[in-house]
Amino acid sequence: MRTRHVNVLIALAAVMLFSFSCFCISRMTQTSNQLTNCRNHILEFKEKMLHLKNKTERNRQELIKALSKVNYEIIQRKNMSVNLVEKKMNTLGNNETASNAFEILRFFFPHLRKVGRIYPDVIIGKEKTGVSFALGISTVNRGNQSYLKQALNSVVSRMTPSEEKDSVVIVSVADRNEDYLKSVVDMITKRFKRQLMSGSLEIISIPAFFYPNILHVQQSTEDSGKSESWRIKQVLDFCFLMLYAQPKAMYYLQLEDDIIAKKMYFTKITDFVHNITSKNWFYIEFSVLGFIGKLFKSEDLTDFVRFFLMFYKDKPIDLLLGDIFQVKMCNPGETPEKCAERNKQIRIRYKPSLFQHVGIQSSFPGREQYSKKI
């Protein structure tokens, strides 16, 4: 009997143990499934976060590129214009004094009486005034050859900081070829950015409407007419540049785009001018070739321009420079010897020359020039 009870108890215990094992296995399976689902959710969340991170990184990179592009365009625009590029319109502005210097052109050219403001088309620079010296360089397209960069580098690099501060170099683009104007602007804004920013260097372009109809007509004729047209245009180009420079400085130095300035040229010029005992000098020659290296008092420039414009059709500007001396300085009935003696006192020549002519390709298309000794 006792054995029977023991067996029943054992059987009951076995049933309970089996039931408990089944329950445990079921719970473990359920927990395992839940863990699997949880792990899948974690992996899915991790994948979404990774995708979001990658998308955010792409957006960040795109944003950086966009900002870099904007900054680059801002810098380029700043470099190109030095914050001072203007397309001059026919309306009066702050530079009314400089604009008034061009008013004498209306007297000589009737077609200019119909236009509004006479002023350069483009000005790049700070339009600096109140300095001692203005240096003018007129430049035109010479085809495949250009000496401007070399000339400009020698002119600006051979000044001391104080000399640069007390001067302004003006590059006048006297060419209607817009590609050439752009190439000059690009070269100067990249190579001479500091000088532009300081105001010691400017770029201007002469408006096409400035030139009279006779110039346009002669440009379409044969070689003789083209040569005459080139000579006439050269006189007009110099006159426009001189009028622009006149209000800026006490003295004006005429240069060209195919010269090399010698070492310490500017120091020698300033020392020579300041040490001249006579104040009645007409102009000073720092070069004997053509119109290069001629120094004028700015207060006299208007008189020179008036004379040049009266005879711009007749002679090159360097010959007109000799004629104005005869007209203004030689008295009627005076002997040539006496006039020549006065010439030495008021037409002063500095030796040795401070500028070397290097250009072989002339500004006249197809013509070469080999005169380098100045």
From TrEMBL:
Domain MGAT4 conserved region, residue spans: 98-373
Keyword Iron applies: no
Tagged with keyword Oxidoreductase: no
Signal sequence region: 1-26
GO cellular component: endoplasmic reticulum; endoplasmic reticulum-Golgi intermediate compartment; Golgi stack
Protein name as catalogued: MGAT4 family member D
Keywords of the record: Signal
